[in-house]
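Quick one, C-alpha cells below:
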C-alpha cells in the first residue's frame, strides 16, 4: 500500500477488472485522449466509460500477449540484472481518484514496467513511441514514481526497452488538467468535442441511436461548416474522379497482364478475385444527409 495510490482490483479477475476500469481513466486510455492511438478516440473512451460499447473481445492476440508477458518481463530482468515480478493490479490515485493504471510488472527496487508484445517495430526505432511515453507518464502520476520502464518484444524475436523519466511539467500542466476536464465531462454525461475518427462516429451512433423527429436550431458556426463541407465534398468528388481515371489508365495499359513494372522500380498487380456470397444482418443506423435552402 502507498499513500499515493490504493489497490482496487486485479487483472487476474478480468470481468471485475473490466468493470472497475470504467470508474476512471486508465493508462491505456490516456494516449487516446491526445489522439495518439488508432484504436480509440476521446469520444469512444467516453462511450466505453458510459457502458455504451460492447466489452472488448478477448481476441487471440490479446490472450497470447498475456501469456508472453511473463517471458518479456523475465527477459528484461536478465538484461537489467534484477528480479522482476508480474503485477497486474488496478491502482487508483488517492490525489486524483479519476486516474488509474494497471502496471505489468515491477522490479525489486520498485520500478514499474509496461510490457508490449507488438509487430509495429518501426514505432520503436527511436525508443518508446509517444503513446507509450504518455501511458508511462500517466502511470507515474498515479504511483508518484520517478521513472518507468517500457519494454517491447518485436516480432517475437527482438527485445527493446527504455527507461522513461518522470516529466513533472507534462504531468502537472498537460496530463492532469486534460484528464480532469475529460472526467468532468464524462461524469456530467456531456460528450467531449468530436474529432474526425471513425471511432467517434461509432461512439456518437451509440450515444444517439434513434432520432426524435424534433428540429434543433444551430448557430452561424454551422453555416461556415456547411460551406466548408460542400467545398470538401466537391474536392473529394474531383479527386475520386481523377483517381478512377488514373486507375483505368493502368487497367487499359495492363490489359490481361497480372503485373506491371514501372521504370522507377514500382510495380502494380491486377489479379482476379472472387468474393464469397454472404448475407448482411439487419441493422438500424442514422444517415447524415444535406438538403439545401429554398
Amino acid at each position: 500500500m502507498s499513500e499515493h495510490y490504493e489497490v482496487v482490483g486485479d487483472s487476474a479477475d478480468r470481468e471485475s477488472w473490466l468493470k472497475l476500469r470504467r470508474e476512471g481513466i486508465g493508462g491505456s486510455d490516456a494516449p487516446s485522449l491526445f489522439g495518439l492511438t488508432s484504436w480509440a478516440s476521446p469520444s469512444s473512451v467516453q462511450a466505453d466509460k458510459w457502458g455504451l460499447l460492447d466489452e472488448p473481445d478477448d481476441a487471440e492476440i490479446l490472450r497470447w500477449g498475456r501469456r508472453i508477458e511473463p517471458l518479456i518481463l523475465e527477459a528484461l530482468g536478465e538484461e537489467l540484472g534484477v528480479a522482476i515480478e508480474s503485477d497486474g493490479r488496478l491502482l487508483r490515485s488517492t490525489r486524483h481518484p479519476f486516474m488509474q493504471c494497471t502496471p505489468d510488472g515491477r522490479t525489486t527496487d520498485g520500478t514499474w514496467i509496461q510490457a508490449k508484445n507488438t509487430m509495429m517495430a518501426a514505432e520503436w526505432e527511436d525508443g518508446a513511441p509517444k503513446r507509450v511515453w504518455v501511458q508511462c507518464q500517466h502511470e507515474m502520476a498515479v504511483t508518484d514514481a520517478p521513472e518507468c520502464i517500457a519494454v517491447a518484444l518485436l516480432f517475437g524475436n527482438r527485445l527493446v526497452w527504455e527507461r522513461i523519466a518522470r516529466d513533472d511539467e507534462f504531468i502537472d500542466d498537460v496530463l492532469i488538467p486534460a484528464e480532469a476536464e475529460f472526467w468532468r465531462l464524462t461524469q456530467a454525461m456531456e460528450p467531449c468535442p468530436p474529432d474526425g475518427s471513425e471511432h467517434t462516429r461509432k461512439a456518437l451512433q451509440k450515444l444517439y441511436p434513434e432520432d426524435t423527429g424534433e428540429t434543433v436550431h444551430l448557430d452561424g458556426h454551422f453555416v461556415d461548416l456547411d460551406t466548408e463541407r460542400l467545398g470538401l465534398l466537391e474536392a473529394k468528388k474531383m479527386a475520386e474522379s481523377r483517381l478512377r481515371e488514373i486507375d483505368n489508365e493502368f487497367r487499359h495499359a495492363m490489359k490481361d497482364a497480372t503485373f506491371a513494372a514501372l521504370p522507377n522500380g514500382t510495380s502494380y498487380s491486377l489479379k482476379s478475385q472472387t468474393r464469397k456470397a454472404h448475407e448482411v444482418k439487419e441493422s438500424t443506423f442514422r444517415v447524415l444527409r444535406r438538403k439545401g435552402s429554398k
